[in-house]
Recover the amino acids of this structure.
């Protein structure tokens, strides 16, 4: 798959490091901000560190999907994300992924060298399909039930795996109808996005089902609330739980793991490879 100027195979799993450029992140609490302003040098340093540790992708997000988070305007989201894309795109050997649902940001980030559009709303916003297609970039289509503010209130499915599967086919069709290509699509079941623990675990067990059409699979499990509930851990104490989930996902065929703790995840993958696990 071709991501801007880089071509990747998915013969072995890849790490996507999370770079939150929101002041109110759930998982790492605005650590790139000083006095409510994004510190570009801190952002660059954090990205460099993740690349050194083994990240193939850096996922930059400027919108918090945390329930109760303030909605961010298009201008604000672009102001947060674009300077970071510009700064790290030029100086780092990594694929820049843009975690956004905003068409204008997709276009502008692509112009600055971004290589992947990662949309938790699977290009459902007005104009997003067209914007994504026009960039020519691969897209990650994530499943979510409901919307961020209320999605965890009462998640409900007849059959979570089949419903996510059908959603993937529908969104990929929409992308193709807008002029996109199936071989530019990555699927993500969207762990924790309108799912209870049982739903999340069912999806994890059934990952192979989603690989039937040949699309790579991305998973985001790192530090999520499921770990907090199952193990009774606060967000800063979820590393071991995150690693266990990452390993389980990779054994089930995940191609990209989106994580906060790149070095620990890289060690996990390396050791598993030495052991001949994959
Ligand atoms: C994802 O799964 N997730 S943002 C709550 C947490 C910890 C982490 C309470 N963007 C995904 O990471 N993009 C996010 O603890 C994503 N897949 C894709 N493709 C949420 C997040 C998090 C939320």
């Amino acid at each position: 798959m071709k991501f801007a100027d880089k071509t990747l195979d998915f013969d072995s799993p890849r790490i996507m490091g999370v770079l939150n450029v929101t002041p109110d992140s759930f998982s790492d609490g605005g650590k790139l901000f000083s006095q409510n302003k994004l510190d570009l040098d801190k952002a660059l340093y954090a990205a460099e560190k993740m690349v050194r540790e083994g990240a193939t992708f850096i996922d930059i997000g400027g919108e918090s999907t945390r329930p109760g988070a303030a909605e961010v305007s298009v201008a604000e989201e672009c102001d947060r994300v674009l300077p970071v894309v510009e700064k790290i795109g030029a100086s780092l050997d990594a694929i820049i992924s843009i975690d956004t649902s905003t068409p204008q940001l997709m276009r502008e980030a692509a112009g600055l060298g971004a290589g992947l559009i990662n949309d938790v709303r699977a290009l459902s916003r007005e104009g997003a399909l067209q914007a994504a297609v026009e960039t020519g970039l691969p897209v990650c289509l994530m499943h979510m039930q409901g919307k961020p503010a209320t999605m965890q209130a009462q998640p409900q499915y007849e059959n979570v795996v089949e419903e996510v599967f059908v959603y993937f086919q529908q969104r990929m069709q929409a992308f193709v109808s807008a002029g996109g290509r199936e071989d530019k699509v990555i699927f993500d079941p969207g762990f924790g996005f309108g799912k209870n623990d049982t739903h999340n675990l069912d999806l994890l067990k059934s990952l192979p089902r989603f690989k039937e059409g040949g699309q790579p699979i991305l998973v985001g499990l790192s530090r999520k609330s499921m770990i907090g509930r199952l193990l009774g851990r606060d967000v800063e104490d979820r590393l071991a739980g995150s690693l266990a989930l990452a390993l389980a996902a990779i054994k089930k065929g995940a191609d990209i793991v989106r994580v906060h703790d790149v070095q620990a995840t890289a060690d996990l993958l390396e050791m598993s490879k030495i052991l001949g696990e994959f």
User: Anything to note?
Assistant: The pocket of YH5 is lined by residues 26-27, 65, 99, 118, 120, 140, 142, 188, 190-191, 218, 220, 223-225, 235, 258 (CB under 6 Å). The domain at 2-274 is CATH 3.20.20.20 (TIM Barrel). The chain has one domain: 2-274.
